[in-house]
Amino acid sequence: MASNKIIKHLSDKELEKLKLADKLLHDASEALPLLGPLSWDKSVYLEFTKNQNLPKPKYKRLNTKKADEMIIEARRHINGDSPVHKWLNIIADKLETTSKLQNSLETPDFYKYSSELFGEPTSLLRDKKSCALDLAKHLDQILNKYKMDGEYDIAEELLSAEQLKRRLQKPLIGFFGDDRPNITIKENLSARATAGTRNISLRKDAKYTYMDVRQLLHHEAYIHIATSLNGKSQEHFKILGSGHAGTTKTQEGLAVMAEMMANAMEPKRMNRLSDRVIAIQMVIDGADFIQLYRFYLERSQNKLEAFENTRRIFRGGVMTGGAPFTKDGVYLEGLIRVDNYIRSSISTHDPKYIKLLFSGKINIFDMDALIMLDEQGLLTEPKYLPPWIKDMRHLICE
Question: Which strand (E) or helix (H) includes residue 184?
Fold first, then answer.
């Protein structure tokens, strides 16, 4: 347990203790991947198309014992009440819950731990009055009107995975140089596209639009990959390079805002984000996999897309309903958090604090810790910043 010793400046001795804790938490985070163990093989979809029965995915079960021990050991080095101590303790909390999540796959407890990490659609926002579900329903009502009108639909040429790869390569080289991610095309990929720190994977048989090009660049590359690389370049606190569950709301909020700033957001895309919140609540209320699949099929008329959207919410959970994976409910709340933070930073003439958001994988509520580290010269300035942050003139006018 942390003591009540208040620390306003990190001494060399205290810094060494915190670096030991950081290394342990970083290693524990690397040993506790969140999404990889929850993935489904493509064969699950093929089986579902044959019989329409509840899917039976096979998960890779993690042995979390070593990670659990590292988290306990890390806490022994975190004795103080500075923002940095609090930040590292919160990370330890998130990693402990992630371990419990991975050990509760396909049980009702999975939903319990998912809710602790990501909240629920009915969790109150910062105003203590509204929730993500209220916002999602409001957006859904507005966007469905545009969907019915059809006036905003644009017929786009569809691109193959190979064509998309070629269109991504040049801007990625221009932005990242030698650090650019590899683009691979895979046969057995459930999602149309996935991104890691060093790679972007595309599904070979999927079709893409020109808007997908912009969204992959600005959402995945210029935010998720960029913040990973910026975090991994940090000399003193390596946990900034690990995308643990505690950073998800801020990361996805930044990524959605990036799409909007780059004119890569469209009604269909925003509708998908709001539908995810509504769908999660449906499963909390008891909808099973097939019922949610029909909900999505009615919206898209595309069987694979409906399956994929449903899979995202049931991965790791219970196919008969009641225990969803709530991560996909964070996008709207994350966007509100990021927007409020940026507006506040601009209004108080502290735009430098906006750049701190890109120092690595962070949570907005950890910014006091980042500011403390920055003031002590313990943060490396982020190398990779999206265009709308490099030149804030447009951002200030928003």
Answer: strand 182-186
